[in-house]
Design brief:
By secondary structure, the protein is α/β, with parallel strands linked by helices. The strands form 4 sheets. Strands 1-7-6-4-5 form a 5-stranded mixed beta sheet, with helices on both faces. Strands 8-13-12-11 form a 4-stranded mixed beta sheet, sandwiched between helices. A two-stranded antiparallel sheet has the order 2-3.
């Protein structure tokens, strides 16, 4: 009997309507289009402007579109995982809110936080539930409202991040396609270089933490860049070597969209031409957990059954990893 694998059978995404351009950003903080493009590679990013809306706003919209697109009855979904670092609330889980908004009533759902690696970690978790036979239809969502934790007076971080959501449907297959392998790693010593100082149980919100602007993203850019360039490339090359993949046989690299130079360095280590690298950072910026599904959504009509893909990511924690899959449809 063939081994059951998990395969992506549908992908969808939702980005906010509001476009925050570099020129507008330059009117808010001391920066310029030239400075941002030369250092990060971002031209614009999408921002949730609707009052009272959080990550579930785009997450639920993406999931509802996915259900319609794949002709899936919400009652058939038996698991939903939401990867996010910007949940609607500390509790309940944003996954529960998304499930409720999308009419999903027979699934158990929970959030997963692995920084920018969250979607890949969640995909691995969903894969294991499918492979075990415990679940048949699993939805993985990456949903973020990064604008809610961005300090728009900090020129080093505010150009980087945007809002958005992407989602995939996982189902079992006994064919040769689907998720083949993953390598996921973390090193908690890197947490000092990229984190949010206040708002957790160590340093609860107070007047002092708000006045000190400690509820925003804190990043030591050079340290993060050095780790990301090394680890994301290492784990991607390791996956290629493990499965005998070459620059010719690999169809696509699907890299986390944090910085154009990190993407280019990873592709160079893999000897991949730019034509085989999915890139949309210039349009959406770094949407954290949503970057990988946003890429798959944009490239969906260029993918073919059996295509070899490597998904690669690096995030706060530090967390990083790669996943090898063969496209299913």
């Amino acid at each position: 009997m063939a081994r059951i694998k998990a395969a992506i059978t549908g992908v969808e995404a939702k980005v906010p309507d509001y476009v925050l351009s570099n020129d507008e950003l330059a009117s808010m903080v001391d920066t310029s289009d030239e400075w941002i493009m030369s250092r990060i590679g971002i031209k614009e990013r999408r921002i949730i402007k609707e009052p009272g809306e959080g990550a579930s706003f785009v997450g639920a919209a993406a999931v509802k579109s996915l259900l319609e697109k794949t002709n899936t009855d919400p009652a058939e979904v038996d698991m939903l995982i939401c990867a996010t670092v910007t949940p609607d609330h500390p509790f309940p889980a944003t996954a529960n809110i998304i499930s409720d908004k999308a009419g999903i009533k027979n699934a158990f759902s929970f959030d997963l936080n692995a920084g920018c690696s969250g979607f890949l970690y969640a995909l691995e978790a969903g894969r294991r539930f499918i492979e075990s036979g415990a679940r048949k239809k699993v939805i993985i969502v990456g949903a973020e409202k990064m604008s809610s934790i961005v300090d728009y007076t900090d020129r080093a971080t505010c150009p980087i991040f945007g809002d958005g959501a992407g989602t995939v449907l996982l189902e079992p297959t006994e064919g040769e396609f689907g998720i083949i392998d993953s390598i996921l790693q973390s090193d908690g010593s890197g947490r000092v270089h990229l984190h949010q100082k206040a708002g957790g149980s160590v340093k609860p919100a107070s007047l002092d933490t708000v006045l000190a602007r400690e509820h925003f993203i804190y990043q030591e850019g050079q340290a993060v860049f050095k780790w990301a360039v090394s680890k994301m490339a290492d784990v991607s090359v390791e996956m290629m070597e493990k499965h005998g993949l070459t620059a010719d046989s690999l169809h696509w690299l699907v890299p986390h969209q944090a910085n154009m130079r990190i993407i280019e360095a990873t592709a160079k280590r893999m000897n991949l031409p730019k034509e085989k690298v999915m890139i949309n950072i210039q349009k959406y910026g770094n949407t954290t957990s949503a970057t990988l599904p946003l890429l798959l959504w944009e490239w969906e009509n260029r993918l073919h059954p059996g295509d070899h893909l490597i998904l690669a990511t690096f995030g706060t924690g530090f967390t990083w990893g790669s996943m090898y899959l063969r496209w299913n449809y």
